[in-house]
Amino acid sequence: MGARSSATRPRAVGRAAGLGLGGATLLTLLTGCSVEDWGSAFGHFGWPGPGISVQAHEMYDLWIASTIAALVVGFGVWGLIFWCIIRYRKRGEELPVQTRFNMPMEILYTVTPVLIVAVLFYYTAIVQTSVDKLSKNPDQVVEVVAFKWNWQFNYQDGIGEEAGTVASTVGSSDVIPLLVLPVGEKIRFEETAADVIHSFWVPEMLFKRDVMPGNVRNVFEVTLDKEGRYVGRCAELCGTYHAFMNFELVVVSPDRFDTFLKAKVDGASTQQAMEAIGFTGSEAYAVTTQPFNTRRQSSSWNQPENVAAGK
């Protein structure tokens, strides 16, 4: 009687564990409608947030689902460990029945990890393919030109190096460059650097892409779905003032963007074009970050003691 009980119990435990982990993992990964709710409830599990683009939402969902799946597996393993500790704790001096192997358990802990990795790989490949997908006819094309230590954004009339520049905005030590884009449209970024490697990064987009010098043009697309103003940064150490190489992404409605771009085409400055779409006064300039001080502009820079101290 005792031998039969000890032989059937591991099989029952294995089936229950397999069904529990597999069912929970699939349920978590397939119920995308509640992923954001789960993420918000637990502080996004270290992720910056849902993001401001369609692609960002896909990456966010993958991160949250993967984290929940990992927690489910972790709690399942911990539960089995503590169950074994309690169930098979020492009850006397008699040595328990010794077994050489348990085939169901070995199959369980071999097949289950393979299935979990396969599911995660599958969804990762889907999201990565979607994020890197390029359309044949994007609604807007922006050439991003990075240089030490600022940005230039050229609104293009087509795709590729042969396209012409309709309007552009460029940053300086005194003025943070503004990248104004419409919500709900496919935006194609074509990146190039004038000197060294930089990296185009807007944290709320949950995505960054290196900007390479030479003939290398990194290209990607996003569809922004939330209006607002967001700081952009260089995420690649590029020199002395790398930390101050910022820009601001301004996401507006398509109508306001058309007005902004028309004003730029007609010869208005970026700030004048911002005023044309309702951003007046200080709002015509960046509000998420400030211009950097190169220190060479200060009256004390030429003092020998400050030069020697690097102040």
UniProtKB/TrEMBL annotation:
GO terms for cellular component: plasma membrane. Keywords: Copper, Electron transport, Membrane, Metal-binding, Respiratory chain, Translocase, Transmembrane, Transmembrane helix, Transport. PANTHER family: CYTOCHROME C OXIDASE SUBUNIT 2 (PTHR22888:SF9), CYTOCHROME C OXIDASE, SUBUNIT II (PTHR22888). Subunits I and II form the functional core of the enzyme complex. Electrons originating in cytochrome c are transferred via heme a and Cu(A) to the binuclear center formed by heme a3 and Cu(B). It is an enzyme of class 7 (translocase). GO terms for biological process: ATP synthesis coupled electron transport. Its EC number is 7.1.1.9. The keyword Secreted does not apply. Belongs to the cytochrome c oxidase subunit 2 family. One of its GO terms (molecular function) is oxidoreductase activity. InterPro entries: CcO_II (IPR045187), CcO_II-like_C (IPR002429), Copper_CuA (IPR001505), Cupredoxin (IPR008972), Cyt_c_oxidase_su2 (IPR014222), Cyt_c_oxidase_su2_TM_dom (IPR011759), Cyt_c_oxidase_su2_TM_sf (IPR036257). It is found in: Cell membrane; Membrane. It comes from Actinoplanes aureus. This is Cytochrome c oxidase subunit 2. It comes from the Bacteria. The chain crosses the membrane at residues 12-30, 62-86, 107-126. Its cofactor is Cu cation. Residues 137-263 form the Cytochrome oxidase subunit II copper A binding domain. Binds a copper A center.
